Amino acid sequence: MITNMKRPVNILITLIITIVMVSCWTDNKKPNFQYMPNMYEPVGYKTYGEYKGFPRQMEAMLPVSGSIPRGWIPYGYKNTPEGKALATKELKIPIEVNEENLSKGKELFNIYCAICHGKKGDGQGTLVKREKFLGIPSLADKGRNITEGDIYHVMMYGLNSMGSYASQTNEKERWQITMHALDLKSKLNGEPLWSSTQNDPTEKETTSEKAN
Amino acid sequence: MKKVNFHNLSSNLSLLLLAFVLVFSTSILAQENGDVKAGEALYKSNCAACHKLDKKGVGPALRNVAEKYERDWLYKWIKNSQGLIKSGDSKAVALFAEYNNSVMTSFPGLSNNDIDNILAYTSLPKPEPKIAVAPVTAKNNDDGNLQNIILAVLVLILLLLVIMFYLVAKSLAKLYKVNGIEEKIEPKIPLWKIFVKNQFLMLVSAIMFLLVAAYFMYGFFMQIGIDQGYAPVQPIHYSHKIHAGANEIDCNYCHSSARKSKHSGIPSLNVCMNCHKHISEYNGEEDLANGYTKDFYDKEIAKLYDAVGWDDAEQRYTGEEKPVKWVRIHNLPDFVYFNHSQHVKVAGVECQTCHGPVEEMEIMYQHSSLTMGWCIDCHRETNVDLENNGYYEKIHEELSKKYNVEKLTAAELGGLECGKCHY
User: Fold this and answer.
1) What is the domain range of residue A100?
2) Are the Cβ atoms of B224 and A42 closer than 8 angstroms?
3) pLDDT (tens digit per residue) in A178-192
4) A168·B224 Cβ contact <8 A
5) pTM, rounded to two decimals
6) How many domains does chain A have?
């Protein structure tokens, strides 16, 4: 009699214990435990790690102020309407216009720009079609009449609603994107491709010198 | 608003009436102030990049702008704002200075009639917030409560049953005592004793027990240190489903360092602000069952503004930044080297191959096991693209001959050598 009485209680207790244990083990909000963590955890600082001794305990820090990445060239135009006008007038593509740079430019344009400006540069990217952004002008917009220096300057600093892309791309990549954008512009205008008009051998020499 | 009022009436008559009213009302508006529809199209394609109707954007909010300035002045400003500023117009100069000297693009292509249409659109009264939203969210909470209530009731019933059984058994025992019936203790040998005495049965069951235990022990030990399915709660709820899925933003847009560095990188907040400077509220689909409402997402965007120090009302940075403590999901142990750029750029592996259907993940989780066996499986199966790789042509040819295959896998190129990943 006594054993019979206890049985449902026993079952209940086991059930509760199992549920608790299973729910602990399958809690996917916490990382699993490790066997000998000192094999897993680095002695040095882990990327994005949290350590004492850093400001805000953040391992991820900005470089020391004034430090310059290898190959970096300062950009001399200011983020003002005057600076933009100057860049539009003076700034020219310093790297060679070739197939490799153009295809890289296309790839990068499709990653960073096409989401708003459209793969054809007509201002009809996915975000525009979904009405997240509106009023993105076509690259061939007559009122803007964009040039190489113009495109580069805007990528560097951003303009109005557009943000700066200087942190996602490097100098060479921005020029590659510029090349592709100019090609798209000429295509939209129904003109011969901009890049096909750039194959003057004398110009090539001077531009490659500049790049070095 | 009219729609809401009439919505509950189901008779055909009321629907007809509704249609009549709607058609009539739009035609009146169109006659009065220029074509609102044409104005809306022009507004969306020309103005909306920088202006919002009810909120400061790069430029001022445009609702009822026609009342603030004279028509002629607006024509001049929209067609050539810089010209107006240079001519020394005091209103123009003040406006230019107020908005940090951001140059408004000139629109010489817009006629006075076009501008009238746009102004007709911006003069529309502000639509009242949808009333339907509130009851729906309330209902959603009810759903959650209902589930909890059902659960509580079930637990209660279970408890009651247990207590009932206990009481019944107790009263039965009492009844036996009162009636003088005693439990007959039969001299029968219990089943377990028979079982214990049978040595063969004991041996077989012991072996079975050990095998089953070994099976579970193996499974348990093999999952130590593996975080497949790990989905931590992030400080800001970022939905890959919305960004990479619905909006089709390329993975590389935010994780730009995956192309050129060891790490795919946690995007810095300035990358978020490339879009969210403009997008301050969520207007997409709501997932009411899980509580992902517009209100929920708007609060998450507000958290981003708080962290990056963006004053949305004034449209400027305050300079008070708070770092966001994102929780890293994918961790490889220290003794293994992995490089993103090598896989993304050189091999051209899709992000989804390892990270799973990220574009469907509302909450990001670890899709793959990230064990060594998992790496090696892929290296064994993946053919390497050797086209247009002149520098290594000779060695690729010789390796093909050695393994007698046309296409080399990553493993055959040395992708299984210990030193490639462990050093």
Assistant:
1) 81-198
2) no
3) 988 888 888 888 877
4) no
5) 0.69
6) 1
